[in-house]
Amino acid sequence: MAKIFCVANQKGGVGKTTTAVNLAAGLARLDQRVLLVDLDPQGNATMGAGINKATLEKSVYEVLLGMAELAAARVRSESGRFDVLPANRELAGAEVEMVELDNREKRLKDAIASVESDYDFVLIDCPPALSMLTLNGLCAAHGVIIPMQCEYYALEGLSDLVNTIKKVHAKLNPELKIIGLLRVMFDPRMTLSQQVSAQLEQHFGDKVFRTIIPRNVRLAEAPSYGMPGVTFDPASKGAQAYIAFGAEMVDRIKTF
């Protein structure tokens, strides 16, 4: 059965989509079968995987509203060697339309169940808000990967997210837990980054992933070529870090 993980943080610009796309590609390089679910109406994970969101016939929008099966809506990322349940702007309207539906917070969970045996990992890229879409992601997942920058404001937002995860665990998804915190856009030259990193390790212990993702230009350039950074420049420090993170994830789920 697939391990289903949300990549979530309600703070924007912390590298959620970069992490979701490159972890998917890193796992695919390790011969894992991966489905990447784009739950953000901006569709950045879709574009970053090399799929044109403007020409989609079906997307996660239709799947959530019961108008299409996930198996019919998924698309192959040729550059990343994984499957994608893509998103586009239509998804922004799904929140309003889902209010009337039964079991609205578990629509994604039910959809994934139909294809779960096809994959080793399902990664869900959540939008930067605690919305009905994010709630669907959290209800579908076994665990949460939290990418965060090592800066003061990131610590502030983290406590809100941890509280939300606790509430979802208590009321909607007893399987949900924090898999780990991933330090991203890390600059070792900054004293603050090192201080916050040390604080995270002290407070969260082994919930902090060993792998650290450095600030890296090649990772930032890759989406404009419609490729994950791991594929775009496998030798870059950022790509190497995500490949190492993929290996750490494979190792970690053995004791999951």
TrEMBL record:
<dbReference type="InterPro" id="IPR050678">
    <property type="entry name" value="DNA_Partitioning_ATPase"/>
</dbReference>
<protein>
    <submittedName>
        <fullName>ParA family protein</fullName>
    </submittedName>
</protein>
<feature type="coiled-coil region">
    <location>
        <begin position="91"/>
        <end position="118"/>
    </location>
</feature>
<dbReference type="InterPro" id="IPR025669">
    <property type="entry name" value="AAA_dom"/>
</dbReference>
<feature type="domain" description="AAA">
    <location>
        <begin position="3"/>
        <end position="178"/>
    </location>
</feature>
<keyword id="KW-0175">Coiled coil</keyword>
<dbReference type="InterPro" id="IPR027417">
    <property type="entry name" value="P-loop_NTPase"/>
</dbReference>
<dbReference type="Pfam" id="PF13614">
    <property type="entry name" value="AAA_31"/>
</dbReference>
